[in-house]
Amino acid sequence: MPEVSVIVPVKNAVAHLAGLREQCEGLTGASTIEVLVVDDGSTDGSSEVLRSWAEGTALDLRVLRGSGQGVAAARNLAVSEARGDYLWFTDADDRWSPDIVSTLLAAARHTDADLVVANARKVGVAGEDLGEITDAARAGTATGVEAMERLLVGSLQGHLWNKLVRRSVLGVAPFPPTRAHSDLGGLLGVLGRSATVAFEAQEVYTYIIRPGSILNSRGYRWRDLPDCLDLAREVGEGRVADASLELFATNQVALPLFHESVRREGVLDVSEVRAMRAYARSLISRRSIVRAFRGGHRGAAARAVGVKLGSAPYAALYRRYRVRRYATLDAAAGERSARRRDPST
User: Fold this and answer.
1) Domain match, 95 and 154 both
2) Distance linking the first and last C-alpha atoms of the chain
3) 3-class DSSP state for residue 179?
4) Which of 39, 69, 113, 189 has the fewest CB atoms inside 10 Å of its own CB, making it the most exposed?
């Protein structure tokens, strides 16, 4: 039986499958690994490439047929089929260290952890460095509730690909049926069921931010974040500090929603943009701002003041920030969106 199941949801990713195969077959300790690729209704030839790969590899590889209902359903299907004691979730179009699974598995064995967390790096499609994701600032362990506190206050992010999860704490269908942020929703549940979380202070994954990603697509559903907030309250109520839940609402729901409303001006209906901003402002109160400031989250507190009291000036400031920080990505996303709207292209 495999020790680790590597889970990869795929839809119309034919351009990335050669790289995916090379990386999966190059994983250290491949003899202890199974790879489950969920083909979620591809129409670009991915299915044929995956079939050929499965027939011509020594890797323990299975290709599952998804229902076409999105990444959350695809991951849930793979969880139900996985045989490994631990699961690692990755994306076909990213890069990772060949030692990622062996490194995380060694930490899990050493600490008997239900969840192992490492670090990652964000880059743009042109290779520009967009910063490190430091989920594990130093090596050590924490309880699941302590790690949940870290997630709520922003020192632990909700991505899956820099984490290894014990299968038994995932439960049945762990990922909520949201278009975006299902990884965050699933991780909240995992933390609620985890006794021990291990932190491995190594950078093992490179997340490539592309214009076609869910968060950069026109089909982004903004109400997915409020759904995650509801789940955080459900899982954390009575287990974590009220101030942590309040900071999560401000810093990881209200502010990102407001920022998305700025990014999507001209793409979303004006009524949707207004609804996003109204909801974001409704989550911010004088108490939440003061708590954020006193808790050392002064940047979040300042941004929350801007959203609550001067949303138009703050939106202008955020536009300028986007130009400086993400000009290449936003330009590519705009071109992609224009091609979709223009039937002649």
Assistant:
1) yes
2) 49
3) coil
4) 69
Length of the chain: 345
SS3 (DSSP) at 64: strand
Q: How many domains does the chain have?
A: 2
The DSSP code for 265 is: B
Half-sphere exposure at residue 74, Cβ-oriented, CA atoms within 13 angstroms: 25
Q: Is residue 38 part of a domain?
A: yes
178 with 303, same domain?
no
The pair of structure tokens assigned to 293 is: 């400031």
Sign of the alpha-carbon dihedral angle for 302, 305, 307, 312: negative
- Domain hosting 269: range is 241-340
Beta strand extents in 90-180 (DSSP E only): 95-96, 115-124, 129-133, 140-143, 163-166
- In this structure, the answer to whether residues 15 and 128 fall within a common structural domain is yes
165 and 42 in a common domain: yes
Identify which of 119, 118, 123 has the alpha carbon closest to the alpha carbon of residue 208: 123
Quick one: 61 and 196 in the same domain?
yes
- This prediction has a pTM of 0.88
pLDDT in tens, 132-175: 999 999 999 999 999 999 999 999 999 999 999 999 999 999 99
What is d(CA 12, CA 291) in angstroms, rounded to the nearest whole number?
A: 45
